[in-house]
Amino acid sequence: MALKKAQNSEKFGICIKSKNAVVEFQNQKCFDLCGDQLNKKCEKGCMLRYAKSKADPAFDHSYKIIKNMESNDALVDAIIINDGQNITTLLLEKNPAVEEQMIQISRFKLSNSEMNVMEKYLLGFSNDEISKQLFISNATLRTHLNNIYKKIPEAYKREIIAAHKSRV
Predict the structure, then answer these.
(1) How far apart (Å, rounded) are the C-alpha atoms in residues 82 and 143?
(2) Which CATH class is domain 96-167?
(3) What is the CATH number of domain 2-93?
(4) Residues in the chain with pLDDT < 50?
């Protein structure tokens, strides 16, 4: 029953590949994120990262977590599990959760720049990555973050920091 629910999940993608990276199963969310890969050798996002990890013998029968990976214009976190027979990937699209959080945060009257910083922060980008993406210095970023923390209630601060740490 739980497997059936997982296969039909709209929240995360599931892809099961052979040891040779041929896709044997993908649910609809995986199809939406990666396109039709069924019965094809997958050479997309997570498998590109997996190929780099293959040189590490510790990954032969283990798992790898990949954060902030792009997949067809979506930002996803991936867990790749190698059990020695199959390579199973779980994909979680980050954008919908962040969009919902941004709606909640918009109530606190942040400036446009502060909203841009918050979005990147919630997506899990590091301070250096945020600075580069927004073309601002680290000092300016710290100023924006300090201003944000002054404007939002304490409970939100804890939530935001916890969410950011889990995504970095």
Answers:
(1) 43
(2) mainly alpha
(3) 3.30.450.20
(4) none
